[in-house]
Design brief:
The structure is a single chain. The chain is an alpha/beta fold. About 30% of the residues lie in helices and about 30% in strands. It has nine helices and 15 strands.
Length: about 300
């Protein structure tokens, strides 16, 4: 399933596109999602991260209405999920799935018809141009590279206008370096169009330039949820002339989080810039030998969250 019409007409001016309340999904005794509560703002690019089996794809399928929650509620623009309504949502599943015996053009036509739309030749050319598949209309699915198949899936997921929301499950699967660079530009353009985008991906370094907000799921529960600020926090490695006193450590705790202390060395996580921290040291007459800085990446946050949870 690539393009799905599952939700109702716009009912209010709320900035909340998705509201999930205490969502639980179980298969027999196996609980896959256990009390997920989450809000996604209209027009935001939201990352959902976790290990394989954490429950990310199951969450997406519940949002799409492909499976029903065991407990809890999902609201899309203040309405419960229904199969009788009109909002267009593009869905890119994790696994590449196209008709191998059909050419690109026919794959697009079939996907459009399944969503209740017909495509003209002009429509098809415009769609393929956006995903860098111009001139490949008659190429059979079995003759496409994995990256080309992935771009065809993107075409299927975004070809209906207007797209209110796009759900991407591991969108970089099968893409080489050039494909990933294309994908970043493509998603940035969709972001500028204020489309609400949900993505799960193991390519955290790529997502850093795209997401506005994120959550981390572990064993069916959200263990971390925050706004993402690229280069927002940094880890400072500070070397003192002598071991810092309690008062000096207390002062550091006020400007950030001390993550490690080793005699004259301290690691400090802070949103302050280096010059601000150095200025504080000077004003307090604190002697330091050296200070180095590392920007904290999304991967750092993910690894720390997973390690702490375990």
């Amino acid at each position: 399933i690539i393009l799905i019409n599952v939700f109702g007409e716009k009912m209010n001016n709320s900035n909340d596109f998705i509201v999930i309340k205490n969502l639980k999904k179980a298969y027999g005794r196996k609980v896959v999602l256990n009390g997920i509560t989450l809000t996604v703002r209209t027009g935001s690019f939201f990352g959902i991260f976790g290990k394989n089996g954490a429950g990310k794809s199951t969450l997406f399928k519940n949002i799409l209405g492909l499976i029903c929650p065991t407990e809890g509620e999902i609201l899309i623009k203040s309405q419960s999920i229904s199969h009788n309504n009109k909002t267009s949502i593009g869905y890119l599943p994790e696994n590449v799935s196209i008709y191998e015996h059909m050419n690109i053009e026919d794959n697009l036509r079939v996907a459009a018809l399944s969503a209740g739309h017909e495509l003209s030749k002009t429509n098809i050319n415009e769609i393929l141009d956006k995903v860098n598949l111009s001139g490949s209309n008659k190429t059979l699915g079995k003759d496409l590279s994995l990256g080309m198949k992935r771009r065809l899936q993107f075409a299927m997921a975004t070809m209906t206008k207007p797209i209110d929301m796009l759900i991407l499950d591991e969108p970089t699967n099968g893409m080489d370096v050039n494909g990933v660079l294309w994908l970043k530009k493509y998603l940035l353009k969709l972001k500028q169009e204020k489309i609400t985008i949900l993505v799960c991906s193991h390519s955290l370094n790529i997502m850093e330039d795209l997401i506005d907000e994120y959550c981390i799921i572990q064993n069916g529960v959200i263990t971390q949820h925050d706004v993402w600020k690229k280069n927002g926090k940094a880890k400072y490695h500070i070397t003192f002339k002598k071991a810092p006193t309690k008062d000096e450590r207390d002062m550091l705790s006020q400007i950030g989080e001390i993550s490690n202390i080793n005699e004259t060395n301290i690691e400090l996580i802070s949103e302050k810039k280096m010059y601000e921290i150095v200025k504080i040291f000077i004003s307090k007459n604190i002697d330091i030998v050296d200070i180095e800085v590392d920007n904290i990446s999304l991967e750092d946050i993910f690894i720390e969250s997973v390690t702490n949870y375990e």
